[in-house]
Structures are given as C-alpha cells and as structure tokens.
C-alpha cells in the first residue's frame, strides 16, 4: 500500500478539505491517506473550534484513512519548525508522498531554499521589523520572489525539511481551488475555515460547507474557544510568576517578559493586552504563540528535551488505515501508540497532556488519558 | 490621644462589629480606634465578599477612626502567625491597648502560653491528625483546657505574641455577645458575618444587619467571590507548573504538591478538588491557604524575605484618625504610606499587589497602584 500524507489543522474540517483529499488521492494514485493533524491548538497558538477528537472523526468519516496528532512542540511554531515536525512524523510513518495546497505550484522551491543559504545575517538586524519581513527582503534581492501567501511559506518549509533531512518524500503541490483563505463570508458549499468559524461564532448558516459529522460537533459549540476566555489564566501567570521564571519561557527574548507582565497588570481584557504588547518587531501569530507557551509554562529546557524525539499518537483510523498501520508499524522508528498511559502522561507526552487540560477550559471531555482511538468502519 | 486597636476582617462589616467597636472604646476609654484589617483575602485564604476599600469605607462610616491593611503574608496564616503579624502592625502604630472578642475572657491565657513551652515535640508525630488536634491533646493533658473556639485560639495567639515580643500592649478581651459565629441564619439586627454572606449569596434579606455603606456595596454583589470561581487559575497552575516549582511553594510539605497536582488533573470543579485533596492530616482552612499560596506562586523564599519587615498601608481615616497619624508618624519604625507607588508595587508591596490583581477576577477596580486613601469627615 502506498500512502499520501497531508499536514492539516481541520479547524474545522470542511468541504474544501474533502475536495483536496480526493485530489491528493487521484494525483498521487495512493491507496491510503494519512493526515497529521494539529491537536487542540493551532499553529498560531489559538484553541481550535472543536477538540481534536471531533475534528479527527469528521476527517475519518469523510474518507481520511488514518489521523495522527502533531505534538504541540511541533504545531505551535513558525512555519519552518511546524513543517519540519510534521514531515518527521510522516517520514516515521513511512509516507513517501506528501500533498499540500499551493498558490504557486510551478515555483522552483529548491532554488529558493538554496537562495536562503546565501542570506546575510546582517540582514536580520532590524528591531522594528518582523523576521518574515526581513526574510522576504533578502529573498527578493536574491530571486525576485517573495513568500507572502501562507501556502507558499509552507511549500518552502516542506522543501527545506525534505532537503535538510534527505527524506525519501516526494512533495506534491496541488493548485488551490475555491474559496480564498482570507474570504470572510460563505457563498456556496466551499468556504474557508475562518469563514466557517466566523459563521459559527455569529450564529449564521454554515451547514452547507461542512460534512455531517462536523455539523453535529459545530452545532454544539456554545461559545467559540478563544484567547479572550483563556486570558484570566495567562494574566494570572504573567502577574504571579517571577520575571526570572517568565524569562525561561520558550522563545522569550529581548525582554519581552517585562513588557508582557507590565501590560497584563493593567489590562483587564485580552484585546487590551494583545494590542498593548504588539510592536512592529513581532507578528500577532508570534505573540499568540508566546501567550500559549506562557500559559503552558513551556520552558526552553522542556522543548530542547523533546523536540528531537517525535512520537506518534494515533487519533483514529478506518479499515484501510488499520491495514496500513499493520504494514508499517515494525518500521516506525519512534513510539507509536493509541492510548496515553499514566506513564506517558507524566513522561514524554506531558506537554500534549497539559495542552489538553488547558483545552478542558472549553469542554469537560478528558482529551488524552486512556482515551481510546476512533475506529470507523 | 490614646488608641485602642482591633484586628478585623469585616467580611462584611455588620452591626455586631459596630457594637463591638463601641464596647472597645467604652471599656478602654480610648480616644481613637484603629483597625488592622485583612485585605482582599481572609485568614482562611478565601476572597472577601467585597473588596478592602468597600469594607474600610463601611468601617470608617460606622465610627472606626483609622483602617490599615494587614499584609497578605500575615493575614493568610494560622492563628499564631496572623495574631503576631497584626500585633506587630499595631505596636508599630504605637497602639497600647488591643481589644478582641473572647469566649472565655476569664481564662488565664498567660498560663496556657506557659504550658505550651512544656509541650513534647513527640506529641506532634501523628500524620493522620491535624496540628490543632495534637496541640489540644497536649494542652488538655497539661491544663484541663482546650482551645476550640476561634476566639479562644486568637486570644491565646495574641497573648503569646505580646509575651514573646515584650510589646507594651494591654490585651482587653471583651465578652462576645449576640449571634454565634456558626449561626447560619439571620434573626434580628445582629447576625454573624457568615450568615450575612450566606444571605447575600442566596439573595435573601440582610439589610437590617449591616450599616448603610455596606448595604450599598453588598447590593452590588452579583456573585459572591469564592474559590469555585478562582479554581481555573489554581487548576492551571497545578497542572502546568513542574512539581519542583510547586514544591517550593510556601508551606508545601510532605509531598502535598503531588497530591494537589494529581487531584487537579482529574477534577473539573473546586468542590471535587478540595474533597479529593482533604485528608485527616490537614484542615480545610490549611488547604484553602495552600490553594491561595499556590495561585499567588508564593514561595518560602519570598515569605522569608518579607515576614520580618512589616509595613503599614493606610486604607482610610477620619479627622480623628488623621490627627492620631500626625501624633505618631514620627515614632512609627516601619514604612507607613497611603499610596502604592510603582516602586512599592515591584518591591516590598508586590505580594499584596498580586493578591489585589487576583481579586480583580471579581472587580474591575484597581486595588492598589496609586489608589488614594479613603478620607471621611
């Protein structure tokens, strides 16, 4: 059996995802589809609209054969680390084709990766500009291209990860169709994930855009999970923890802990907080990730201990996915498991467990401990 | 001017407190009344029903001349540390008479304090009994008396603090009148503070039991502040913080951090949590204090650095209180201030500031920074 892998958030799973799934299967001729999916928090550090189990269920019922979880320390990361983590998981699962939506599938991404090798470190010394802006300035100077679209940024990151690790993975960009990422409203059966989330939040119609399993889950969403709800936890951490402890947070740099503490002390709402903290130096995505790292008390030390040791938490599968697992499991060089034991909870899986506990702010459902995998006929 | 001091929580201020105030003034013949009052958390570690400003205001409008705040590291403590801290403040304020409600004013408390000196350390080795139980076993053996009533326990603690520190303070026990501490319902104009709190929570009548300023404040209480509301903050801290960090919490001993983390992971409500943590070893009051220490991330180190350095935060005064302050201020050997500056916030006052920020869970009112004192004509 040949597999095609996909790196997904499914936040929520919608018709566009189903369309892409079928395209990926057709183009690659794969027998089985494997999705490595963000857990309960997205790459941007935000809680997902429904939990990972509801999203995995909708994916399986829509034809994905196997869904595994992307660990938090790979998910909540800038594109290059996110992509590298996801490909490490897919490579371990013996997946040799990876399909992804692309804005410019014809671009020569290996050439862009090569161009980055020639970047000048001095080109990253502007403290009033984001890393991405300075990256694009240099890329433009070298190649006449810029990575603006999120899909292009990920395509670049996948290419870089494959080349750097010599993965036996063939990357398959698929021209994006239908609704744009940034589309704010729903028209027709294909809508962007953010348009669907907005409709759920506003209580407007979205049923046509998602498959039945997702309809059921989204219909139960009372209040869309967001940082406004988690802010009391973040605020208390920023106020109560000593500066030295906050400074040890993963990616905390340039004295940002002082700014975050100061602004938290005077901000009663998340909106006031995030606008108070924002500078030209950092993107909102970076700051949202810092909010999550801080709330999870994630330290540089903890990430360093985990990041080179992937593991694979299987969220669910159908018959074909199960057969594939049987075929590859002896070749998978990392821990592969369907149930989180107490030992895993207190050991290598602890960060994902803690993220699941934080997500319990939005649901009483235990996210991990002894949770059985989904099995779909 | 001669002052009489009182150690109070005023949670809320009610007619019984006013009655006691007048008695204290009459019995001692004092010209001025000074209350050292718990801030936004009580001795038991619970948030007060309204904030310290509303409680101080009601006290001043009912005839207390000067209200100062008892710092958190003195307030949220077992009786002996609570009493010692309060008397340190009153002594610094040159108060030489202290009045307090007593169940058994005729008992020879100095003799009981002397008896404690003869206690056997081996009498405190039962791990399935609270400290208080073992204390009373020894006291009974030596004197035939037990300290059961909260007023007796405090009377003992005041006596011990005066003797140990050679304070020039005359203790004046006042026989308690009217409603019992443990009375659960309101009948008449005198009710216990807990009965008033219960009436506010239940939305039943309490107006007759409190003076006008307290009526106004209590009428605005939508939901009575409690640990159920703060539990998400406590739970997140117990789940996210490493065990080693939790172990450094003030008073965390005998591996309690393991138990608290384990129970927090599985408990979605504070009720489940506190019952899951309770053992014969610890009283609920002790565990509630541990909850507060944990949520404030209060370390042994921080308490050690602060506990021997009292300071006096003046919450409010009337004309007589102001005159008294003028009379004594040159003799007060510790910092005495009416407004919390940014330097104090980040320095010696930081723990009280953090407690105030935690209390902001219940009110948008800034509790400390640059808050002016109350001045009543």
Account of the 3D structure:
The structure is a homodimer of 377-residue chains. Chain A is of the alpha/beta class. Chain A has a domain at 227-303. Helix content of chain A is 48%, strand content 11%. Chain A has 18 helices and eight strands. In chain A, strands 1, 2, 3, 4, 5, 6, 7 and 8 form an eight-stranded mixed beta sheet that branches. In chain A, helix 4 packs across helix 7 (150-165). Chain A starts with a strand and ends with a strand. The mean pLDDT of chain A is 94. At the A-B interface, helix 10 and helix 18 of A face helix 10 and helix 18 of B.
Structural class of chain A: alpha/beta
Topology of chain A as a string of helices (H) and strands (E): EHEHEHHEHHHEHHHHHHHHEHEHHE
Mean pLDDT of chain A: 94
Q: Biggest interface and which pair forms it?
A: A-B, 22 and 22 residues
Largest sheet of chain A: 8 strands, mixed
Report the oligomer. homodimer
Query: Could you name the ranges of chain A where pLDDT drops below 50 across 5 or more consecutive residues?
Result: none
Number of strands of chain A: 8
Proportion of residues in helical segments of chain A: 40-55%
How much strand of chain A? 5-15%
Instruction: Write down the overall geometry of chain A.
Output: globular
Question: What is the alpha-carbon Rg of chain A in Å?
Answer: 20 Å
Intertermini distance of chain A: 19 Å
The number of helical runs of chain A is 18
Could you give the topology of this structure?
2 copies of one chain form a homodimer.
Chain A: E1 3-8, H1 15-28, E2 32-38, H2 52-61, E3 66-70, H3 72-75, H4 79-92, E4 97-102, H5 109-117, H6 131-143, H7 150-165, E5 170-175, H8 193-202, H9 212-219, H10 227-240, H11 243-247, H12 256-266, H13 270-277, H14 284-295, H15 300-306, E6 312-317, H16 319-328, E7 336-337, H17 342-346, H18 350-359, E8 374-375
Parallel strand pairs in A: 1-2, 1-4, 2-3, 4-5, 6-7, 6-8
Antiparallel strand pairs in A: 3-6
